[in-house]
Amino acid sequence: MKYSLILLTLLSTASFSDAVDKVQMAPQPSTVNVVCPTGSCTKASAVQKVEVINPVSMYTPKPKEDVLSVDSSLRIDVIGQGVAPMNTASPAQAYALAKRAATADAYRLIAEKVKGVRIEGDDLIKNMMVQRSTVRTTVRAMVRNANVVETTFKDGLCEVEMEIVLSHANFAR
Amino acid sequence: MRSRDGNCTLSCKLCTLILLSSLALNASEYLISYRYVVKDTILYNETLQISKAMQICEGIPQESLTLPSSGTKDIKKIIHTNMENFVAYIHKLGISVEHEEKNINYQNKSTIILTMHTTCFKVDFNDNFAKITPLK
Prior knowledge:
The complex is a heterodimer. By secondary structure, chain A is an alpha+beta fold.
């Protein structure tokens, strides 16, 4: 009698754990479950159909980000743009000035990509109307070993293509 | 009345002082800083400051640049003659980037400031070349 009670207890716990496992199992993608809210459904109208969408199927993979790992290097390419001022003495001077401006822009883009941008925004609203909308972005960084790949100058616009190769060893922390 | 030995000590001290001060005014070391400002994609201002070092610089020599000097020992003249090469070299050494962009009522204003902070450069003048080496 005593052993039969122990056996019964063991069997009941085993069946309960099976039930728990069944509850925890993730449903298949877009499975239709038939649910009876009252417990005893005699009519077909009382039966409800519930569609369960598997959360695994809703998961969309994130785009792969460029991450600097220990054993590999990371190359970053940017194109900076600069414009010559209106009152230049010669086309050569215009080119030189525009190139300098484009280089600065390229450095800024590298700094933005590598270190990031700080953004602050303010909106002033009076009488339910936007009076002033301000967005400030700032970048501060130290850039070294960047290389100019190509320089083009066309219609007063200078474009400087610049690249920087980042490796884990020489990355300033 | 001063003793003969005392006067000698004073002159020795003066000589040592003059010698040390002349050593401190090392003519082959220069302090150089560079900064330029770009406003709304147009070059606004560019400054290159060069001055002789009043103290002996300490630091490890970095990658050097050789510029043609054509006999002169005026570093300002040499750098201004080869400005493009020197600016490219400065960029390689490392430059500080500061960028600020303001968008007020959908109108954009941007300012980029590139700065090479004051750095000591050792300059060796050869026959027709000047070798510029930063000390960091």
